[in-house]
């Protein structure tokens, strides 16, 4: 009987990037499907870097069949992209970071918007995971706000570069809703506006990672600074129409287990409210962003309240205001 062979010393090598990762464009200007990746907190650095690069290039990336991902795995993966932040007013569904995007909770996202632009440092990335999807409808659309800026005629780009706008979570809700609000909608709105925020952003921000110029518009934008209400609405309408042009958008039909990640600094999105009473349950987490800076170098400014209040869990989205608070 020979003695057991000595155990080979454990060798730690740097994990190689996933050889199977593939990025396939969905649309010409926005959207790509990433396959060959099992999302989670244990992904190696090289794979995370590949995902981040694809995200910055394509603005929204989709992953199919991530059924293994639960709330914890969702968060663990999110942390690989940055610090997680809670919604400033809406309590999470799990007592941690996840925001419920459920069609039975009264919240509706059927307006073009960028997440949480009513605070200065709104999220850099949102990561949305589909748990239950309806048999039809309930698609989400994303629009590329860098492509929208790039296609503007030059005089309009010059104008947009020099304008700022005030975003608020206390916008005129009734003006955008043809139907009478249900009790659930009223309740959701009450929670959503428990603290009323007002933030002035440049209409064009310089993306901190890509250097691209992107339009900062969407349904939280109330008014352009220095314009009458009439002029403001007309100008916003012209700029926003470029964002919504079908060539600048992609539409995603959800399947359970899908995950979508978007660069919230370079996109708007729209949740189509057409799945009737069928259940639609998605979970969103957000990764902290930084304070936007305009073409002239001026940062966004929090006008109200005096500071971003702490949510019940974690730090608030927009907490990293770099001290850029309203002048009293
Ligand atoms: Fe949203």
Tell me what the structure shows.
The protein is of the alpha+beta class and about 325 residues long. The chain is built from six helices and 17 strands. The strands form four sheets. Strands 1, 2, 3, 4, 5, 6, 14 and 16 form an eight-stranded mixed sheet that branches. It has a four-stranded antiparallel sheet with strand order 12-8-9-17. It has a three-stranded antiparallel sheet with strand order 13-7-15. A hairpin with a 6-residue loop joins strand 1 (about 20-25) and strand 2. The model is unreliable at about 1-15 and about 320-328 (pLDDT under 50). It binds fe (ii) ion.
Question: Helices, strands, pairings?
Answer:
Blueprint: E1 22-25, E2 32-35, H1 45-58, E3 60-63, H2 71-79, E4 84-85, E5 99-102, E6 125-132, E7 140-144, H3 145-150, H4 154-162, E8 164-168, H5 183-192, E9 198-202, E10 204-206, E11 213-215, E12 221-224, H6 229-243, E13 249-252, E14 259-263, E15 267-271, E16 281-287, E17 301-304
Parallel strand pairs: 2-3
Antiparallel strand pairs: 1-2, 3-14, 4-16, 5-16, 6-14, 6-16, 7-13, 7-15, 8-9, 8-12, 9-17, 10-11
Fe (ii) ion (FE2) binds next to loops.
């Amino acid at each position: 009987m020979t003695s057991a062979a000595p155990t080979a010393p454990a060798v730690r090598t740097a994990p190689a990037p996933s050889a199977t990762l593939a990025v396939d464009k969905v649309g010409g200007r926005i959207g790509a499907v990433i396959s060959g990746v099992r999302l989670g907190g244990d992904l190696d650095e090289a794979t995370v870097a590949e995902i981040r690069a694809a995200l910055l290039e394509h603005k929204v990336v989709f992953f199919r069949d991530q059924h293994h991902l639960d709330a914890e795995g969702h968060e663990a993966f999110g942390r690989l992209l940055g610090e997680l932040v809670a919604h400033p007013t809406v309590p999470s569904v799990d007592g941690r970071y996840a925001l419920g995007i459920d069609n039975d909770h009264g919240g509706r996202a059927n307006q073009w918007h960028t997440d949480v632009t009513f605070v200065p440092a709104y999220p850099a990335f949102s990561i949305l995971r589909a748990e239950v999807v309806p048999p039809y409808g309930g698609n989400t659309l994303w629009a590329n706000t860098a492509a929208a800026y790039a296609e503007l005629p030059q005089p309009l780009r010059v104008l947009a570069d020099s304008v700022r706008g005030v975003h608020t979570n206390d916008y005129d809700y009734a003006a955008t809703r043809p139907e009478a609000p249900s009790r659930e909608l009223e309740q959701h709105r009450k929670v959503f506006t428990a603290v009323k925020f007002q933030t002035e952003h440049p209409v064009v921000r310089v993306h901190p990672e890509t250097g691209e110029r992107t339009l900062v518009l969407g349904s939280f934008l109330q008014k352009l600074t220095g314009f009458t209400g009439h002029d403001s609405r007309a100008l916003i309408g012209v700029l926003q129409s470029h964002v919504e042009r079908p060539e600048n958008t992609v539409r995603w039909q959800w399947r359970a287990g899908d995950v979508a990640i978007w660069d919230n600094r370079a996109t708007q999105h729209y949740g189509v409210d057409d799945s009737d009473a069928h259940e639609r349950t998605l979970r969103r987490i957000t990764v902290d962003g930084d304070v936007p800076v305009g073409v002239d170098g001026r940062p966004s400014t929090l006008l109200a309240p005096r500071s971003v209040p702490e949510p019940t869990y974690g730090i608030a989205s927009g907490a990293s205001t770099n001290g850029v608070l309203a002048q009293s």
